[in-house]
Amino acid sequence: MNATHLEHAFVALLIQMALLPFANAKITGTIAVALLLGREIAQHEYRLAVQRGWEWGQALPVGIFEGVWRGWTLDSALDIVVPALVCTVVAVALKIIKPNS
Fold this sequence. Notes:
The chain has one domain (3-94). It contains 4 helices and no strands. It has helices at 3-19, 25-51, 66-69, 74-97. The longest helix is centred in the middle third of the chain and has 27 residues, at 25-51.
């Protein structure tokens, strides 16, 4: 575990708390994690493109959804799993504290 995992968790919590007035904690946590997941997939696509000789201004030589199933490392997986766990803990804690919401 490194600092980026904690940074991602902190950003996810900020997003979750910022959206909390508009929806319940499960939905806001899901939105936060989905944003981070999209960012991580985009990073994989760019990494794959650079490995294939891509330069700025060219079309990406990456197939559709290729960033979803290629390029995952333990570090990139933890960049998603840690925020997901933190947002889940917050959602469960808020449900216990305020059971009617």
